[in-house]
Amino acid sequence: MRKEKLMVKIRKLAGKPVRNGFSLLEMLVVVGIILILATVAVPKFMSAGKTAKIAKISADIRTIDNAAALYEIDKGKYPDSVAALAEKDSDGKAYLQFEPRLPDGGTYEISADGVVSGTFDGKTYNSQMQDIKNGGGQ
After folding, report:
1. Are strands 116-120 and 123-126 parallel, antiparallel or unpaired?
2. pLDDT digit string (tens) for 15-43?
3. What secondary structure letter does DSSP report for 108?
4. Geometric angle at alpha carbon 28, from 22 and 32, rounded to 5°
5. Predicted confidence (pLDDT) per residue in 60-112, tens digit
6. Calpha distance 33→132 (Å, rounded)
7. Is this prediction's pTM over 0.70?
8. 78 occurs within a structural domain
9. Cβ distance 58 to 100 under 8 Å?
10. Would you put residue 92 in left (φ > 0), alpha (ψ -120 to 50) or beta?
11. Residues 73, 110: contact at Cβ < 8 Å?
């Protein structure tokens, strides 16, 4: 406190005005910097949600594809639906603990030749896509 008063006295003696806050110009510069950072960061955060959903689809398709391959080894044919992989058979064996769902609540499909697919946000993803096979999502 004493040091503060001393600085005020020195400023008054030197003929300099005593400032108690930030000037309007300083505040505008800070607000401008914050706005610039926000315009760069917000689009990145918005696309992160979609990227995460596509990564989930990729993981789900690989999981269903593996379960369908095991089903085909045991039964000699691919299942009629993804739901069939989550149902227990006569031996009490299920190939999936639960039926995975697309991020929008839709269901995955499986064809007679074992191709797993799902449509999300207007794009169809399937187990034959190279990026899905490699573990990617886009």
Report:
1. antiparallel
2. 766 667 788 899 999 999 999 999 998 88
3. -
4. 135
5. 999 999 999 999 999 999 999 999 999 998 888 899 999 999 999 999 999 99
6. 40
7. no
8. yes
9. no
10. left
11. no
Answer yes or no: is 125 within a domain. Answer: yes
Q: What is the DSSP string of 27-39?
A: HHHHHHHHHHHHH
Q: How many residues does the chain have?
A: 138
Range(s) of the domain holding residue 93: 54-133
CATH of the domain at 64: 3.30.700.10
Paired tokens of 58: 């990729």
What SS3 class is residue 115? Answer: coil
The phi, psi pair for 119, rounded to 5°, reads -110, 125
| Residue 40 burial (CB count, 10 A) | 9
- Nearest-angstrom CA–CA distance, 57 and 26: 48
Among 86, 85, 68, smallest CA distance to 77 is for: 68
Distance CA 120, CA 111 (A): 18
Please state, in angstroms and rounded to a whole number, the distance separating the CA atoms of residues 81 and 113. Answer: 12
Element (H, E) at 134: none
